[in-house]
Amino acid sequence: MTEIDAALLSKLACVRCTGALGDDGASLACLGCGATYPVADGVPVVLPGEIGDWGTKQRELYDAVAPHYDDAIPAHVNRHYRDKRVDAVRDLLPVGSEVLDVGCGTGAFTGALRDAGYRTFGMDASLGMLTEARRHGRALVALGRGEALPFRDGAFDLAITIATLHHITDPDLIARTLAGMVRVVRPGGVVVVWDHNPKNPYWPYLMKRLPQDTGDERLVPLEEIVGALTGAGAVAIRSTRSGLVPEFAPPALMPAFRLAESIVERLPGVSIMCAHNVVVATKPVTNARARAAS
What we know:
Mean pLDDT: 89
CATH class of the largest domain: Alpha Beta
Distance between the termini: 47 Å
Oligomer: single chain
Order of helices and strands: HEEEEEHHEHEHEEHHEHHEHEH
Structural class: alpha/beta
Largest sheet: 7 strands, mixed
Number of helices: 11
Radius of gyration: 19 Å
CATH architecture of the largest domain: 3-Layer(aba) Sandwich
Helix content: 25-40%
Number of domains: 2
């Protein structure tokens, strides 16, 4: 038996024809074109085809580090950044809304969102990462790729990606990933991109010590993210810079680091040094729906 949750199945779509998927007890089958997709350890594997050498290398890397991934950064620092992101979602959506995390990894963030009362879904290209997320009950998950998101149009209230784009690196794949995120949120829904700020000088030093960073990464400029979202039809795009607490901050000094962070984030000339670019965009409401609501 595939053991696919009904709520997840209702969101999935064929990456070849965008048709709905049905569960035949052994795999998933497209009700439109008949394409079939396997299920591994309870995780739907909805890929567009061969992923190539680069994709294979990335998958093997993340499968290998998955059991220890959550320990790469001290727990108190991880918690600080998770709390900031949960608070950001709270500011955008009411509790109970449906959120997709693209590149969810082990689901640490989706788990925190679920604890806060949101309905969480995750997608990643690493089965090892998704196995961890599923084992901890952090989200309903599917294996896929950003440039071919395996979900129906308008399936979620919000789609977010955190520290993922700099691993994709290729501008075309990044643009397709962001366009897919716009596609899978409902009209009026929100897309959030939270990724490394290339203008922060500390990243090269930290990334050399992280097991998931190999040196092949490319920190994506803010202008590229905004341009891709604009090209995908998103509107009301706004950006901020966030985060300054380093991974070596000791627990006892966290209040001081948080205070310094909050000050720097509010200073336009200095916030360029923050760790992350945070971009929030909205999917336009269709003309017909706008007229009905007026």
